[in-house]
């Protein structure tokens, strides 16, 4: 690290010029990168996806989309009875006006289940072709317009469905990636201004801007090699903002500390690279490990988030270890003005706090573990799936239409019907059998091309309730089992079938992913901390913290204790199927950042001759404000992400934000100091047999003198 610092300082103008070119390239290419991102949650090779693709190829629509529900309500005093032909023509008009859709209604099924109990409202299912573009528009306007034109005056038309409810009925998309990033940057600048109290606060923001745009540049070639999920753009912008600022903040703070100790600017940069730069490298690799573990899952969109997400710490480490020292080596002392805050001593508050925790380490550890244990217990009640229709919208035309249908006795399962692909000669018997399955409201075989093409037919099965989570898909399993008894049954598609496939493909492979992440992280941290026990503690605490975070999400989103008050969104009833795995992948590395920051400094203080308790007090006294500020910046970035469109993005953002808060408070303020103090000399063992293959020096505890009083003054390093 010293040689690297000397190299950067010798060529600092070239380094700044290089990143200037990257900045320009990022501005020019970021738009092209985002245009190439896709929406695709398919699961190749899984039964539901295979059937969905067969349906789409044969019928041109449906399979892996939930249908629009189009409702026609006649004026007061009129009923659907006597107007069946008019309503049927109106629904058919939508099929003729909008390309690549299939209309399923009373006209082509002959079933009165497509009207409400009061006989004033009829509805149709409109299956459409999946569009992988994130800029796709809802088809509500053309569908509604086509139906309205075919109806006499006085009739009202409404369109609802999972997608319409989730969007709130519009395509505005929230403030957008740029708006959210600027919102996060403003919050970060406020924190940085407090930390540095000088113009130096702008340096981490500059580094973050370059890092984000560099990530978009690196992401562009990846979009040509594979499909990359549109969610990656939000992660690159907001998580990239937080991570790059955190790393630069660590580096600049250490540079300031060395300057305040009397070192000249050149040597201060070199020492900051040796100490803080070393921690940044290990932190970045830890974050990347958690994300790259996603590539072992047989799910393309999760793999793309693993590849794309791993570019975030890579770009952040690169910019922090090149651009930051290059700028500090040139104009650092000049921009560190007015210098109100100094770093020549540990924080009084954090030293006192840590001393109090060390004195009462058993109480602190027990209290923290009890709090986490309660949340972990809540986690076991998690439901994996999709947000229920009740939480997607509480007003608007889509909500009103759904309420009209529900009051009329239409089951909410109409939002998530199953499509069973069968041979045409088996369609009737299959429909009759599936209608008898427990939890099924009805099974229909549409006549004509809407349900029959080239010797294949689709049986549309409507469950009693929407199949949106792991506890409501049992009916789908029963339908799949019943359909398998027929020689003409070739598979079941739909939202419920897709969730069963996802649970099998992702959570069935989760033990492998967890093992890979835990082992790689443990080995990396053994090398970083030169200890066998500290890395084991770090990995176990991270897993407990992640389970507690998911427990908090169950309370906040699934059970609605907070989601309605903050976002105006009712209890979702489930946590969206892909979000827990994403939270695990990101938070495992991000929260480990703070572990690396703190324990690296504690190890440095111990190696300088302090006792274990002194090293803990001094180490956290030096890093407490830094870690708190870094966590706050990352939390503000996630808060900005939560302003994005859709319940799913808000759920992901709040999960990440809550995880960072749990980690920076309960774990880092209580558990880390109390447990390291409790472990004592056992923290510092690294025998020769373990050190040799890792190419580090073995470690044994040194003799410790008694710990000083409860509020120790910072001491110069010994030895």
What does this structure look like?
The longest helix has 33 residues, at 647-679. Helices cover 62% and strands 7% of the residues. It has 719 residues and is of the alpha+beta class. It is elongated and about 95 Å long. Strands 6, 7, 8, 9 and 10 form a 5-stranded antiparallel sheet that branches. A 4-stranded antiparallel sheet has the order 2-3-1-4, sandwiched between helices. A two-stranded parallel ribbon has the order 5-11. The two termini are 22 Å apart. Helix 9 packs antiparallel against helix 10, helix 10 packs antiparallel against helix 11 and helix 21 (510-529) runs parallel beside helix 24. Strand 8 and strand 9 form a beta hairpin. Among the domains are: 67-160, 2-Layer Sandwich (Alpha-Beta Plaits); 347-394 and 529-719, Multidrug efflux transporter AcrB transmembrane domain (Multidrug efflux transporter AcrB transmembrane fold, Up-down Bundle), CATH 1.20.1640.10.
Could you give a quick summary of the protein structure above?
The protein is α+β, with helices and mostly antiparallel strands and 719 residues long. It has helices at 2-10, 12-35, 47-59, 84-97, 106-109, 140-149, 162-167, 176-196, 202-225, 231-260, 265-292, 300-320, 323-335, 348-359, 361-379, 389-392, 397-407, 427-434, 474-483, 495-507, 510-529, 533-558, 563-567, 579-607, 612-641, 647-679, 688-694, and strands at 68-73, 101-104, 121-128, 156-160, 384-385, 418-423, 440-444, 452-453, 456-463, 489-493, 575-576.
